[in-house]
Amino acid sequence: MIECGSIEYAQARLQSRHGRRASEAQWQQLESTREFAALLDLARAGPLRTWVAGITAQATVQEIEAAMRTHWHAAVAEIVAWMPGRWHDALAWCAVLPDLPVLQHLARGGTPDAWMPQDPRWRELCAVPQGECKAVLAHGPWRALARAWSAPDTLAGAWLDEWRRRLPQPLQHADDSLGQVVAALRLHGAAFAAATPGTGTQLRRALQARLSLLMRRATLEPAVAFIHLALSALELERLRGELLVRKLFPNAKVV
To answer: Among 56, 150, 182, 190, which residue carries the largest CB count within 10 Å?
Structure first.
């Protein structure tokens, strides 16, 4: 019997999940569905059901976003439980990724959105003046990012530095599987930053193809867990976009 908490166990579970991902034909069916409720029903009936659990046809944008953040945290926690203990800290840090845009918005002096004071994770940060936010960050789940508060554009770099610190072994060279994942994500980030309007979908699909190839090569390597999370993030982002477009622009033409 394969033991839970081993690379072998994680590989088996992750490969199973990978094999059940939505096909491009299923995505095309979703994307051609005009009504929000119909789109939600279609997602519930297929491989994307986990991401839309708890979302109703009457859900507000804030409720959709909150549900998807919860599902992301659960997805990360599940993979943490499958993997050997020495990788838990680095994997758990991936749960923070959806927080980076919000933190950047606040660090730039942006006004907290209406939902933030109601969310236990954000309540304290939203309750203090801008000048005290760094001190609040330094004692909470984002403490590793506190140094970037005064330079919001460095938040992603601060996240990556903390992730590297949490790795049980340093990244090696270009042939290392995990190093290749980081390189692929860096290249995507650079390409996305320089992208012209209308090319974002193409860039995301290219990243998905690259990550899928790396996953096939990373058999029984810890990198497979991080690749799966990156693919899951792309999937969640794609579904989130479809849901929010239908909710925010109910009369828009579906292309």
So the answer is: 182
Answer whether residue 233 shows pLDDT above 80: yes
Helices and strands, counts by H and E, the chain: 13, 0
Other Cβ atoms less than 10 A from the Cβ of 169: the count is: 11
Give how far Cα 227 sits from Cα of 40, 77, 166, Å: 27, 15, 17
What DSSP designation does 8 have?
H
Do 93 and 162 touch, CB atoms closer than 8 A?
A: yes
Mean per-residue pLDDT, 233-239 = 96
Structure tokens of 74? Answer: 């659960």
Predicted confidence band at 251 (pLDDT cuts at 50, 70, 90)? confident
Q: DSSP for 52-79? A: HTT--TT--HHHHHHHHHHHHHHHHHHH
Measure Cα distances from 150 to 79, 116, 121, 160 in Å.
33, 21, 21, 17
